[in-house]
């Protein structure tokens, strides 16, 4: 702003008139990128009211703290020579904290999409250069990235702990890379399912309840059944196949078969055919939820 | 000035199952403040959605700023601002944050978005309250935020759908003055819809009247109001006697309560009225020219159309 003339009395607002805008106008892709970063910040409540920060930041702490404790324990016990491997496999961490991850998705997926539906903001996006496909892609990418950050930071924390404890660096690095790939799969699957459910209702409360129910209930039922069939009747093959029926055990199965992780479920996929099926189903869930989201948003009237 | 019309439609038709929202509408709109008038359900919002490329026409063509709505949707939307009729503001963010975000969604870089937001919020009359969450705003303030997001990227044309909806008389006047300024001060073409003719008469250069998706009339506001001028006359007593005397003097007089409405035939009409009233020994309380309201013309026009 230019300095006010000295003679002007203080407290007067000078109307400098309307100024046009001749600067650059970014294209569709850069606008979509701006929406991605805006939504990603929104996933963690950044740029929203303090109340909106409580849940995501609280859950982030809940999910991160155990990893920090594990890292400290790794360093301390290794220094006393009591430990020659990490106490918790990196790849198992998402399954260990899965209830908290489910709640995070339950609160943050609706935050990403239902607000625009509830407040009818979508027409404002669509009356701009952005297309529906850009909106859906940016939102999906933002939530998946948000969940990935949520899972990757604890995994990296444990990895740093392992390195500080002077455990074999090569082996740990290989493990952490595989664990991060697994975390990316978890993010894509969970964000896809979460967003799809959230986009079906403009009522945020319904979205929260529905997502938590679907994620937590499916996991409890599947792991309960797996327990009964796998341990009770010693039918680990059937128990393994049951893992297809909940998102968490599904991705765990892929990690077990394709990435060589230890299964956190009662049983992993029995055999290579099952492993392949787990991978296919995972890919179908990711692509399917994206396509369903596209279909859903084609239906939104403006 | 260029001769490309801001908006042009050619036999534009939109059918929904069971309803024809627009029926072979052909209209050309020049830069300025253009009012789109019609009853609720006349097809105003449908037209705007087609112009923005958000909805596809069943048949016919439309162009905005010389660009075809079907093939150039994104380019049109980059140069046009849109203020919807309905609520569209999130409650939990401040006006500043929201308008900055919307500026970025229009393709402005982050710095420019912040600068333009500060400017435009000042222009629409939002000051300290811009930092509070929108959820606590009055209807008038919300309408201003909606207007700001439509203007923040300095478009060439704004489409305002019922901008005075839900406002009290003072808020309505302020909003209308603001809309007028968008054209006169900001140099942006305006298409504004309303179901209230009187409002648009005050601010529009041109009025387009549609009813049930059919064009009733499209002409300059001056043409609407110039049609015939009248003189409102009020006297202290003997209204009937004055009316008779004026009729005898060759003027067309109609009574509206205590006020006589006299058709102006020329400059001497004023003198005739003055002399007639003075001759009768009454006092003249009021002698003022009155323009036809668009509404009256519209009613007449609608009657003509239905009679045809």
TrEMBL record, chain A:
<feature type="transmembrane region" description="Helical">
    <location>
        <begin position="205"/>
        <end position="229"/>
    </location>
</feature>
<protein>
    <submittedName>
        <fullName>ABC transporter permease</fullName>
    </submittedName>
</protein>
<keyword id="KW-0812">Transmembrane</keyword>
<feature type="transmembrane region" description="Helical">
    <location>
        <begin position="59"/>
        <end position="83"/>
    </location>
</feature>
<feature type="transmembrane region" description="Helical">
    <location>
        <begin position="176"/>
        <end position="198"/>
    </location>
</feature>
<feature type="transmembrane region" description="Helical">
    <location>
        <begin position="140"/>
        <end position="164"/>
    </location>
</feature>
<keyword id="KW-0472">Membrane</keyword>
<feature type="transmembrane region" description="Helical">
    <location>
        <begin position="273"/>
        <end position="293"/>
    </location>
</feature>
<keyword id="KW-1133">Transmembrane helix</keyword>
